[in-house]
Specification:
Blueprint (H helix, E strand, L loop, with lengths): L2 H11 L5 H15 E4 L2 E6 L2 H15 L4 E4 L7 E6 L1 H9 L16 H13 E3 L8 E4 L4 H9 L6 E5 L2 E6 L2 H10 L3 H50 L8 H12 L5 H7 L6 H18 L8
Antiparallel strand pairs: 1-2, 2-4, 3-4, 5-6, 6-8, 7-8
Helix pairs in contact: 2-3, 2-5, 7-8, 8-9, 8-11, 9-11, 10-11
Length: 298
């Protein structure tokens, strides 16, 4: 199921109970998709869930029945129409009101419900496992919606896509905050959880890459050491090393695949990693000198 549908189902499952908030929710839908011709209201919508919900709320709030009209070759292929002087007054007053306060707030939940209705009518959100994008297909009221969102400290970007006028967010924090404002807590947690999961995965990849680089360096160093030590043996010069260095050299040659920590642990007597590393450097310096390797490529 697309993540947008999941969020909208969560919103529908938690619709407000208070009459003023339910009307604010319906006004959010009309704000994005409604137009008026006198008392005739036309609402261009997408999706059966939104059609059914809007029809129910129009009947509840205005005691009116809706009619469905098909609109071929348009972005929103169907339209609801109904008559309501209250809805017409709301739409007519939008041009004269402050864009950051388009509704009459009768309780603290009205703005939240209005914002929820806006998302139901015009919002889309990508699956956070794929990318972060929350967008609104706004039409002529894009500037008003942008001003309203700014009252929540949400700063959307603007774009045009074919016949759509869009507002959008590309950062996870804004998307989380928006869902928190409309009460879609499960959606907000989904974004948060995905962000945490991505962060952990990225950290693990960085550590794995770091470990891989360290392993490569360790293997390369061990190969150089065993190569020089073997040459000392082949040229009968291994005995020219001090006894403690000769013992360490033979130990390294015997266990070329061990890390410094592992090699230090099986030395007799056991050594620290830094102590073993110091000995191996002295062995390499001596090997270069004994083998007359002027390049000193160690």
């Amino acid at each position: 199921m697309p993540f947008t549908n999941t969020v909208k189902e969560e919103i529908c499952a938690g619709l407000p109970k208070k009459a003023c908030c339910r009307r604010s929710f319906l006004y959010g839908i009309l704000f994005m998709r409604g137009s008026e011709k006198g008392e005739l209201i036309e609402v261009a919508l997408e999706g059966e869930m939104l059609f059914d919900l809007t029809e129910r709320m129009v009947a509840e709030q205005f005691s009116r029945e809706c009619r469905r009209i098909k609109r071929p070759h348009t972005i929103h292929s169907q339209m609801l129409t109904f008559y309501s002087s209250s809805a017409a007054s709301f739409l007519q007053d939008l041009d004269g009101c402050a864009p950051e306060n388009p509704i009459e707030e009768k309780c603290s939940g009205c703005r939240k419900s209005f914002l929820s209705g806006i998302f139901m009518a015009a919002g889309r959100v990508s699956d956070p496992h794929e990318n972060y994008r929350l967008e609104f297909s706004c039409g002529a009221r894009r500037d008003s919606l942008a001003a309203f969102l700014r009252t929540y400290d949400l700063m959307p970007k603007v774009a045009d896509r074919r016949n759509e006028k869009l507002l959008y967010f590309r950062d996870s924090t804004s998307i989380e905050d928006f869902f928190a404002h409309i009460g879609a807590t499960q959606a907000a947690f989904s974004v948060m959880d995905t962000k945490i999961e991505r962060g952990l995965r990225n950290d693990a990849n960085r550590l794995a890459n770091c470990d891989a680089n360290n392993i490569d360096k360790t293997v390369a160093a061990a190969m150089r050491q065993t190569e020089y030590i073997q040459r000392l043996i082949d040229e009968n010069k291994i005995s020219f090393l001090p006894p403690e260095l000769e013992a360490t050299a033979r130990l390294r040659l015997q266990y070329p695949g061990l890390s410094l920590v592992q090699l230090a642990a099986i030395a007799d007597p056991p050594m620290t990693k830094s102590g073993l590393n110091h000995r191996l450097k002295k062995i390499m310096d001596a090997a270069v000198e004994l083998l007359n390797d002027k390049k000193g490529d160690i």
